[in-house]
Amino acid sequence: MRYMLFILLSVAFAFAAQSSYDLMERANALYRSGKFSQAIILYHKAEERGADPTATSFNIANSYYQMNKYPEAAAAYRKAVDFSNGAFSPALFNMASVYFRLKQYPECIAAYHRALKLEPANISGWLYLGEAYSKVGDKVGALRSVEKAYQLDPDDLSVVYQLSEANIAMDDFDRAVEIVRKGYTAHPEEVDFFVYLGDVFRLNKQYEQSAGHYREALGVRPDDVNVMYKLADVLAEDNKPFVAMDILTNILQIKPDFSDAAIFLGNLAYDSKFLDRAEYAYELAAKKGNPEAIYGFKNMAYDAIAKKHNEEALRLLHIAQKYYPSDLSLQADIMELER
Question: How far apart are CA 138 and CA 152, in angstroms?
């Protein structure tokens, strides 16, 4: 027991002799090793030895942040801000981020404003401020914040998209399109701009505008089956099933294993009473293992039964069974008809 006590006292004596600089270095090494709790202890000791309280509070806050202890991190960042008389922008930005995680959005917004007064050219800060405004439903504040980021770097693709979305949230589609088209001029390789606009207009049920933007994308990438599928989808929603079916047929010529396109084609053909075309499409999907083909064949079979065409219904169900021999519902329907 005496031996152990001697060692502990010796260690304590050596610890006391260390300078604040040495303690900060050790604490930083612990932080880099992911030993955040131990780092916090040494940061506190370093501050007691005279280390800069702004630096120690900031590092303590970062350690709490890494441990997902956000209330403690926020308190430590506030200390760093206070010790610096509000002049240490990294603490303000990080404090704002913690408030965001804590869903304390008004405090988050206030912190970002203070930080951005110190660093008005911080693009990320303006974008995060815009997100915080969105969380409280302030569309104008969000738009103004993202506009600031856009003014700083109008060629940044992520900023272009976010500013477009901010304008769409304000129902200013003309401005959104203008921004995207400027972005496309600077980045003609970014065909997804048109796809994005197509998606936006479709969500707002502006089907003609949506189709127009998908077609612009296809003008650059004519064999992009995913964009073709989107175009077919919006045309179907716009009550233009025959044009949509032609596009889906083209998709299957380019990519025969696109079974979702086959199902879509089958459904449109079935609804339009093009039963031969529907059967062809469902079987194409069945060959690729798409289970939705079963429902397509069943619907056609049930229609045939309703018309007392039981042999036709059996024929359709047997086609489906060929591809899905273990499906119990198909077996039951076939047995019912064969009685």
Answer: 22
194 belongs to a structural domain: no
Share of the chain above pLDDT 90, in %: 84
Residue 16 predicted with pLDDT over 80: no
Tokens of 289: 């293992």
Query: What is the three-class DSSP state of 129?
Result: helix
Distance from the first to the final alpha carbon of the chain: 93
C-alpha 194/C-alpha 69 separation (Å) is 42
- Residue range 202-231, pLDDT digits in tens: 988 899 999 999 999 999 999 999 999 999
Residue 298 lies in domain: 256-339
SS3 314: helix
Tell me, yes or no, whether 245 lies in a domain.
Answer: no
For the segment 163-201, what is each residue's pLDDT rounded down to a tens digit? 999 998 998 988 988 998 899 888 888 889 999 989 988
Q: For residue 184, tell me if it sits in a domain.
A: no
- 320, pLDDT greater than 90: yes
**How many whole angstroms separate alpha carbon 132 and alpha carbon 112?**
9
What total of structural domains would you count in the chain?
2
Largest distance between two CA atoms of the chain: 101
Kindly report the pTM of this predicted structure.
0.74
DSSP SS3 for 187: coil
Residue 185 lies in a domain: no
Domain boundary pick from 55, 76, 97: 97
Structure tokens that stand for 12 in this block: 């304590």
Instruction: Encode burial over 300-312: b for 16+ CB neighbours within 10 A, e otherwise.
Output: bbebbbeeeeeeb
- Domain CATH number, residue 38: 1.25.40.10
Distances (CA, A) of 248 to 197, 258, 298: 21, 10, 22
Q: Are 186 and 177 in contact (CB under 8 A)?
A: no
